[in-house]
Specification:
Blueprint: H1 10-18, H2 24-35, E1 44-47, H3 50-58, E2 74-78, H4 104-111, E3 115-120, H5 156-163, E4 169-173, H6 181-185, E5 189-192, E6 213-217, H7 220-230, E7 260-264, H8 275-290, E8 294-298, H9 301-312, H10 316-329, H11 336-343, H12 350-371, E9 376-380, H13 388-393, H14 395-402, E10 414-423, E11 429-437, H15 441-455, E12 482-487, H16 499-502, E13 507-513, E14 518-522, E15 531-535, E16 544-551, H17 552-560, E17 566-572, E18 578-584, E19 593-594, H18 601-612
Parallel strand pairs: 2-3, 2-4, 7-8, 7-9, 12-18
Antiparallel strand pairs: 1-3, 4-6, 5-6, 5-10, 9-11, 10-11, 12-16, 13-16, 14-15, 14-19, 17-18
Helix pairs in contact: 7-15, 9-12, 10-11
Length: 613
């Protein structure tokens, strides 16, 4: 028996299967009946029939969550993403065609046991952030909380379906904010991954070099589970990128300490007349500070300048390329607002493109420097909500306003996570976005999970508060940009092998000592002479060391050059903490000179030099 107020987040769905409360078939039937309650939201372009869903249910027979990570999990997908045997329209009836193969990312979800329920409404050809650019027979998609308000776009129906509890998660696409703006307006988590992590094979492009499929979910744990299934390299997609190990699900659950979050200078923020948005964002900042984050103001003008170039520069020509056949043969079938945007590509020259790319590369360099100072950037996801009637009356400017905090992200190769953050006095939701460089997706999910479990805000439009149903997994890897290493000999600052650190752009963190559990020996090796540090049970001493921070990408080559009998292991410091550091195999110390009495390699070599005099 499925309770009337059941929220189908992934954990609840699979718990229901495990305890026998319902079966996948019963849940699908229940969700289908529930979906008929919202005809005014214009959610669907195609709802799958029971006959179309049957093969996906049959696939689950004899299987369980032990074999299939998304066993029986219902989802919906934006109608620019292919599902085999179901028309893809991109919200343009004259464009409709029926693919014989599902998109790469959809195939991965199906193999993991997820069940597609339908294809959702959208701003036509993924051009818009409002959800109103869908023509008849569908019409504007409307907000899950109040149908008088916009749902956000272009992934409008995908967000509204999840917010209303009609699916566990959904797929959208995100070129300029289409996976984040609808997330805020409907109180969901919206994951815009690093470009290339989600394949675009079988997804209709808007701007091919910038597009990303995206995920809407009730919470970060669900978003991470879907991310893990979908983030796989696709040899058929020339823009596909292989994920880094630290950015996989193995890194999920890591609690990062001493988080440094950047927020825009106050005069760089815009709320377009909605003062309550500023108040809500200030509260978000205070909440993060209560959670222990250091918050600093940063200059985001390079990001905002990049954002203005998305539609003001030659990138709009990519939208023309995607629709060229239709624009050349039957432009009248394209939504007039969409057509007007795409037509601005006419007259853009190759020279314009290169000039713009040179400027964009300068913004990328400035963005890189910005994120070297902070762990992530925190901004509102969107400046405010708008009524549908207001957007229909002023479709271009109000749509532009909605992208103020989103348009730059793919141009600058950043990833983003939209997170629910409370409500306006009207009852409509507010949210913020965490932004970081590419391949930091799991770090953002970890940060947001910490927030989510502390605040326990309602899920979607259900009104039911989030309660953690399971503990987070122990992470198998920490997504660190740098690895700290303790050195005690020739790698010390200014000594003969220190170049091996500095030329890898390592930096000195601090000078300290080991715990009183070590002995130091002079190794019989060719120049330069080196010590060996060995941990002992008795008669140990504290040895002076330096802690260096080595870029993770350089760590492997550094370790590979360390000669026997030295290696990298764990070294205990005087404060009881453990770090990576140089250690020596105990057998190699036999017959070697014990120089522990000096307490430091520098003191030993100074003494040896004095004796030579």
């Amino acid at each position: 028996m499925i309770p009337e107020n059941f929220v189908p987040d992934i954990q609840s769905v699979q718990a229901g299967y495990a305890n026998g409360s319902f079966t996948p078939r019963e849940l699908v039937s229940w969700l289908y009946q529930k979906s008929v309650n919202y005809p005014d939201r214009n959610i669907w372009i195609t709802r799958l029939t029971p006959e179309q869903i049957e093969p996906y249910l049959s696939y689950l027979i004899g299987k369980s969550t032990k074999e299939l990570s998304l066993y029986g999990v219902p989802f919906v997908l934006k109608d620019n993403i292919n599902l085999a045997g179901v028309p893809t329209t991109a919200a343009c009836p004259d464009f409709a065609h029926t693919p014989d193969r599902s998109a790469f990312i959809v195939q991965k979800l199906l193999l993991a046991g997820a069940i597609p329920l339908g294809k959702t409404n959208m701003d036509q050809f993924a051009t818009g952030l409002v959800g109103t650019r869908s023509p008849e027979p569908w019409g504007p998609c409307r907000n899950a909380f109040d149908p008088d308000y916009i749902s956000g776009g272009s992934s409008s129906g995908s967000a509204v379906a999840v917010a209303l509890g009609l699916a566990s998660f959904s797929l959208g696409t995100d070129t300029a904010g289409s996976g984040r703006v609808p997330a805020m307006l409907n109180n969901l988590v919206g994951l815009k991954p690093s470009r290339g992590l989600f394949s675009m094979t079988g997804v209709l492009p808007a701007c091919r070099s910038l597009d990303c499929p995206s995920v809407f979910a009730f919470n970060t744990v669900d978003a991470q589970k879907v991310f893990t299934v979908m983030a796989q390299s696709d040899p058929e997609d020339a823009y596909s990128r292989k994920n880094s190990f630290a950015n996989t699900g193995r890194g999920f659950g890591h609690v990062q300490k001493n988080i440094k979050i950047g927020v825009p200078f106050a005069d760089q923020m815009q709320f377009f007349g909605e003062a309550e948005s500023a108040t809500l964002f200030d509260q978000v900042v205070l909440d993060w500070q209560k959670l222990g984050a250091e918050v600093v103001e940063v200059d985001i003008e390079p990001l905002l300048s990049a954002a203005r170039m998305l539609y003001g520069g030659p990138w709009v020509a990519e939208r023309y390329v995607a629709l060229q056949n239709l624009m050349d043969s039957s432009p009248e079938v394209v939504h007039p607002i969409v057509r007007g945007i795409v037509e601005t590509a006419v007259g853009k020259t190759a020279a314009d493109t290169y000039k713009a790319e040179y400027q964009m590369q300068a913004y990328r360099a400035q963005s890189k420097r910005l994120f070297e100072q902070i762990d992530c950037l925190l901004t509102p996801t969107a400046p405010r909500h708008y009524l549908v009637e207001d957007v229909l009356a002023d479709p271009v400017q109000l749509n532009s306003n909605m992208g103020f905090y989103t348009n730059y992200m793919n141009l600058l190769d950043l990833c983003g996570l939209a997170v629910p953050a409370g409500f306006y006095t009207s009852g409509l939701p507010f949210g913020y976005t965490l932004v970081a460089p590419a391949f930091k997706d799991t770090e953002l999910l970890n940060m947001a999970t910490h927030w989510e479990r502390a605040l326990q805000l309602p899920l979607g439009a259900s009104g039911c508060r989030a309660v953690a149903k399971e503990s987070l997994p122990a992470p198998a890897v920490s997504a660190l940009d740098n690895i700290e290493v303790a050195v005690c000999g020739a790698h010390l600052d200014g000594l003969p092998l220190n170049w091996q650190l500095k030329e890898r752009e390592a930096s000195l963190v601090k000078k300290t000592s080991t715990s009183a559990s070590y002995r130091m020996y002079l190794l019989n090796q060719s120049a330069p002479i080196r010590p060996g540090l060995i941990r002992v049970e008795n008669a140990g001493a504290a040895i002076e060391v330096e802690i260096w921070s080595v870029p993770s990408i350089e760590f492997g080559s550094f370790v590979a050059n360390i000669p026997y009998p030295l290696g990298i292991g764990k070294v205990e410091l005087q404060d009881g903490s453990w770090v990576n550091g140089f250690i020596c195999e105990a057998l190699a110390a036999e017959g070697m000179r014990d120089i522990t009495e000096y307490g430091a390699w520098r003191k030993f070599i100074a003494s040896a030099a004095q004796m030579r005099k």
